[in-house]
Specification:
By secondary structure, this protein is α/β, with parallel strands linked by helices. It is built from 22 helices and 15 strands. The chain has helices at residues 37-41, 43-52, 68-78, 111-118, 149-156, 164-177, 194-209, 211-220, 237-247, 288-311, 317-322, 324-338, 350-361, 370-374, 377-384, 386-394, 400-412, 430-440, 445-448, 451-454, 461-477, 479-487, and strands spanning 3-4, 28-33, 60-64, 84-90, 93-99, 102-105, 125-128, 137-138, 143-144, 184-187, 226-229, 249-250, 255-258, 262-266, 282-284. The chain has a five-stranded parallel sheet, with helices on both faces. A hairpin with a 2-residue loop joins β4 (84-90) and β5. It is globular.
Amino acid sequence: MTTKLSAAALPAITTAATPAYDRGSLTAGIVHFGVGNFHRAHQAVYLDDLFATGSDHDWALVGAGVRDADEAMRQKLKSQDWLTTVVEQEADSSAARITGAMIDYLQPGQATAIIARLADPAIRIVSLTITEGGYYIDPASQKFDPTHPDIAYDAAHISAPKTTFGLILAGLIARRAAAIQPFTVMSCDNIPGNGHVTQNAIVGLANLVDLALAQWVEAHVAFPNGMVDRITPATSDREKKLLADNFGIDDAWPVFCENFKQWVLEDNFPAGRPALEKVGVQFVKDVAPYEHMKIRILNGGHATIAYPAGLLDIHFVHEAMENELVSAFLTKVEQDEIIPVVPPVPDTDLGDYYALCQRRFANPKIGDTIRRLALDGSNRQPKFIIPSALDRVQRQQSVNGLSLVSALWCRYCYGTTDSGAVIEPNDPNWDRLTAQSKLAKDDPKAWLAMTDIYGDLANQPAFVAAFSHALTTLWSLGTKATLERYLADNL
């Protein structure tokens, strides 16, 4: 017997913690674009904790989105009064909580209504989790691409835009016209300098609309940088069944995640902010060291295990960590090549941080999949792997491990595992990647010809040679034997 999640059902739910505050006292202070699993396991949880202290009830969340999938999420959350069940899992424990920090979700496609909400003086922060690929970044330069058709459309139709950035800019235009203080724009995505990247996107779009507008945005709108972290897999029927069986709760879209979470923010909120430091958020002057650590060691580590595990037909991340070759490959690449080029982080031992990442990856309860880690490599590799490789070749240091990571990605994009099983499309640019991978089977340099992804690294002889040798070895010997050679320092 399960209980369908809703506000009315909360008193009857005894298997999960429920909001320890009166949701009727909440008023909106934040509009959030991208109401996916990570947001609901991270920002929404921190706010739920904060509201439980009895303070800052004027900082509740209003969801927003621009994709068709956002409407599906909206309908599911609406059916349960915007509540979400979050299941935090460790190897030896599981605990469920129901969060109530969201009080509304604007209908995607209704630009007028979204812009009106953004113009509301009560909204003082607009936050985003739109994934690494949602920022219209040129992969090679890592700069905003103003030529993208979506951006060109919004520039010509700024009163009825279709992208997140167009809507945000339209909201800022409305506030400027009404002499209302601009909201702060806060990215919560895994992008180095995510505040700067977001500012470049919105100022870049504003430049296409009106130069004076762009100058106003640059002068008056704050874009704090931030580092976010919590391993949060996608929700499938598996997670819904686990919730029903173990906790007796019927949630249309629950979130399963690890117990660990971290949020480091630049304290740059001119319009005010919730007192998130009360619930564990670190506010610092410079987020960059924390970003480098997390993106290169944790996200780079995910990318390192994703492709060999995928080629070896391993399904779950914890199973990859149980595979001696894959886990040893991760450790060698991290210790030999990634960690040595990560700048120091205040009050943090990078070796201890990597050991924490290992334990987190090995968590058998999470159910995180290799396919999720391998998703969208064309956007993730330029952020998580290629910068470390470029740092090393510029220092004339070995890139045998990182070049093998890149070669494994190339081999994965061929579309079959070592056993011959088909790899279903797993990147927005899958057709292009597959075509290049097929060319690279005979000519490895064909893969590196994607200079929009590899940038300067494609012209570094040391990397080109190491990558070419790694890919040729993968095709001649297979993943297992190639990993064995690398681990024996014989690649």
